[in-house]
Specification:
By secondary structure, the chain is α+β, with helices and mostly antiparallel strands. The relative contact order is 0.22.
Length: about 180
């Protein structure tokens, strides 16, 4: 079963419900550590942060200001854990040297901010965060910058958390989306 968050920030959650400072700190640290693992292409370690039933979704955004709405079910990505791992393999292969030609992987930086944590089910939390992602591709002088809201469902797991669901809503309309953006 795929969980889809509504466009409003967790409409069934009471955003005024506080979590303890310890839980908030632990979740924020988890998100910062996740960003570091992705930016340093430590995909094997990052995969360990996914729950077995993890799903990731990035709905396509269309130009509402000119009357084009996003048709239902149109997503850049709507992947389960197996598909995420397959995309990781593609991403790793794309960054490897090819036939004697040195090909460097794009450099990314993820900045996570405005984290709001809401208690959900037992040992699960809804987490809203803002993402600023910069990407510098080999041979390019300027960065490409994307901003987004992320809606996560995190589950407590022994000493840390696991990502159960992530929905990424990018601010740019009709963006040229690649795999590295949602990982």
């Amino acid at each position: 079963m795929t969980i889809h968050c509504a466009p409003a920030a967790f409409p069934n959650s009471d955003l005024s419900l506080a979590v303890s400072a310890g839980v908030y700190h632990d979740i924020q640290h988890f998100l910062f550590r996740e960003a570091l693992l992705l930016d340093h292409r430590r995909f094997g370690e990052w995969t360990c942060l996914l729950a077995n039933d993890a799903t990731f979704r990035m709905p396509a955004r269309f130009a509402r200001e000119i009357g084009i709405e996003s048709p239902a079910g149109v997503d850049y990505f709507d992947d389960d854990r197996r598909a995420i791992v397959a995309r990781l393999k593609q991403l790793q292969e794309a960054g490897e040297p090819n036939a004697g030609r040195q090909q460097s992987a794009p450099q990314t930086r993820r900045f996570i901010a405005n984290v709001i944590v809401c208690p959900c089910d037992r040992d699960e939390y809804n987490v809203l965060s803002y993402l600023l992602l910069t990407i510098v591709r080999s041979g390019e002088a300027q960065s490409t910058v994307f901003s987004a809201e992320r809606y996560d469902r995190l589950r407590r797991s022994s000493r840390s958390f696991k990502i159960v669901h992530r929905e990424i809503v990018i601010d740019q309309r009709n963006a040229n989306v690649d795999i590295g953006m949602y990982l």
